[in-house]
């Protein structure tokens, strides 16, 4: 894939958090478009199952089981994928973590875990892939952010702040790498019923003293201006568009794929 060629071709890709949720949908979708996929996750068992789904498209798939929050987690994953494929065209920084805590009960442990994955690992992944792509003169990085980054969420502050950092890193990376043919954009998904979302909404219901969890979830869904939640496969189409199809003049952009959730 070469920026400026006006056409996109299947390429070599790396997706973090590829074992489940949105990351799995993105990996499967990229494979279906003919891309080689390096799938990175801490959950080796779920990753193996997701990798099988990608292999059904007949593409090269590698599984990288790692904790991205370790010092060499993100850069090591980039290195392994370059060794396997010869080069890397696309990085999708999707892995994320969030936990619910009331503002006045926030803990150091929750902040550390959230920032280590959502901010540090993502930034170091951008740096390592950016260096490689810069040398090649092409590449695309897509960071998964959240509507939360622009909302006041007193029970979800560490997560919201971490995603505001993702937005800052996306813009900085886009400017740093623009002269070298590398594009950096982000996508903000709406509410998807993934393992992470199920856990955090159960925590939110408990914090609000709500035992009628189904009614609580329905109220939250009703707050989405489009009036429904969104499937991972649907959001993955947006990520894949940024990765393979978006015009190369687009960089530093945030694609809102949230049904108007943050009302902006
Ligand atoms: N689910 C939503 O409603 C929603 C909304 C907006 C944004 N997002 C964002 O979308 C992205 C994907 O979220 P999801 O809902 O699919 O989450 P998920 O929890 O279902 O999947 C995240 C994946 O990341 C992996 N992971 C977690 N910690 C890791 C680590 N330290 N090292 C390597 N892998 C690790 C998990 O094993 C899992 O497979 C995240 O960045 C999330 O913040 C989700």
Topology (SSEs and partners):
Elements: E1 12-16, H1 21-32, E2 36-41, H2 44-55, E3 61-65, H3 73-85, E4 90-93, H4 108-136, E5 139-144, H5 157-177, E6 182-189, H6 195-207, H7 213-222, H8 232-245, E7 254-257
Parallel strand pairs: 1-2, 1-4, 2-3, 4-5, 5-6, 6-7
Helix pairs in contact: 1-2, 1-8, 3-4, 4-5
The structure holds nicotinamide-adenine-dinucleotide.
Summarize the structure.
This protein has 8 helices and 7 strands. With 264 residues, the protein is of the alpha/beta class.
Question: What do these coordinates show?
Answer:
There is one protein chain. Helix 1 (21-32) packs parallel to helix 2, helix 1 (21-32) packs across helix 8 and helix 3 packs parallel to helix 4. The protein has a seven-stranded parallel beta sheet, sandwiched between helices. Strand 1 (12-16), helix 1 (21-32) and strand 2 form a beta-alpha-beta unit. Mean pLDDT is 95; it is low at 4-8. Helices cover 47% and strands 14% of the residues. The two termini are 33 Å apart. It has helices at residues 21-32, 44-55, 73-85, 108-136, 157-177, 195-207, 213-222, 232-245; strands at 12-16, 36-41, 61-65, 90-93, 139-144, 182-189, 254-257. The protein contains eight helices and seven strands. It binds nicotinamide-adenine-dinucleotide.
């Amino acid at each position: 894939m070469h920026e400026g060629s006006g056409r996109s071709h299947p390429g070599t890709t790396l997706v973090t958090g590829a074992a489940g949720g949105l990351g799995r949908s993105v990996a499967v979708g990229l494979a279906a478009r003919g891309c080689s996929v390096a799938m990175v996750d801490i959950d080796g068992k779920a990753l193996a199952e997701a990798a099988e789904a990608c292999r059904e498209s007949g593409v090269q798939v590698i599984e990288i089981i790692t904790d991205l929050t370790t010092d060499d987690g993100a850069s090591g994953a980039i290195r392994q994928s370059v060794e396997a494929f010869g080069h890397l065209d696309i990085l999708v920084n999707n892995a994320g973590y969030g936990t619910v805590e009331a503002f006045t009960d926030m803990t150091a442990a929750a902040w550390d875990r959230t920032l280590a994955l959502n901010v540090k690992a993502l930034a170091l992944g951008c740096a390592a892939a950016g260096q490689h792509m810069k040398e090649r003169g092409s590449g695309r990085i897509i960071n998964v952010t959240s509507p939360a980054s622009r909302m006041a969420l007193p029970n979800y502050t560490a997560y919201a702040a971490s995603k505001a950092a993702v937005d800052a890193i996306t813009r900085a990376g886009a400017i740093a790498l623009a002269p070298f043919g590398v594009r950096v954009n982000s996508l903000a998904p709406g509410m998807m019923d993934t393992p992470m979302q199920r856990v955090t909404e159960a925590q939110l219901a408990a914090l609000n003293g709500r035992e009628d969890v189904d009614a609580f979830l329905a109220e939250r869904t009703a707050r989405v201006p489009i009036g429904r939640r969104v499937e991972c496969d649907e959001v993955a189409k947006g990520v894949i568009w940024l990765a393979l199809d978006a015009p190369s003049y687009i960089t530093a952009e945030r694609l809102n794929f949230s049904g108007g959730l943050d009302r902006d």
